[in-house]
Design brief:
Layout lengths: L4 H37 L3 H14 L1 H10 L5 H19 L2 E2 L6 E2 L14 E3 L6 E3 L22 H7 L10
Antiparallel strand pairs: 1-2, 3-4
Helix pairs in contact: 1-2, 2-3
Length: 170
């Protein structure tokens, strides 16, 4: 069986062409992936250019270098993390503001020191600060002085009504 060297050279040439085309496509796809990835991780244009250049010039070692040096979180992940931290801090601090001037006030103040707005009243029985909108003291159960829970007697209601005049038809 004769060995055809020219056929072997043509097969090797075709395989080399496919291998080169595959490596070229892989190289271009790594460059595109790097550009898209760094765009989601950094806003710095110089860092973006350097990352793409490292991958474009060094190919496979460049991808490894880029994977080691790239920012750990995307911009969106950092933004969400910052929002979560701010929400947590706001729930911890829970700022109370004066309804009139908007200045920060403390929870135990009865008056705003800036605009002198009455913020709370003191309970008549226990002397603790009670919110103005509350009808009852949450500490001792005393009703607010402006609120009366007793219903007037039915005789009092009847006497307070004006007498109706009865008209007879003729």
């Amino acid at each position: 069986m004769p060995f055809n060297l020219s056929a072997l050279n043509s097969y090797a040439l075709v395989l080399t062409g496919f291998g080169a085309a595959f490596l070229l496509a892989l190289w271009i796809s790594f460059i595109i992936w790097t550009f898209r990835d760094i765009r989601g991780r950094s806003r710095d244009p110089l860092l973006r250019i350097l990352a793409v250049l490292i991958v474009a010039l060094l190919f496979l070692p460049g991808i490894v270098v880029y994977l080691f040096l790239r920012p750990a979180q995307t911009i969106e992940e950092e933004y969400k993390k910052t929002l979560d931290e701010e929400a947590l801090l706001q729930t911890i601090e829970e700022k109370t503001l004066c309804p009139s001037c908007g200045r920060r006030i403390r929870e135990d103040w009865l008056f705003c020191p800036k605009c002198q707005t009455k913020l709370k009243r003191t309970c008549q029985d226990c002397g603790r600060a009670v919110d103005l909108a509350w009808n009852i003291c949450p500490f001792c159960g005393t009703p607010a002085p402006e609120i009366q829970f007793e219903s007037p007697a039915s005789d009092d209601l009847l006497t307070s009504l004006p007498a109706e005049k009865t008209q007879t038809r003729s």
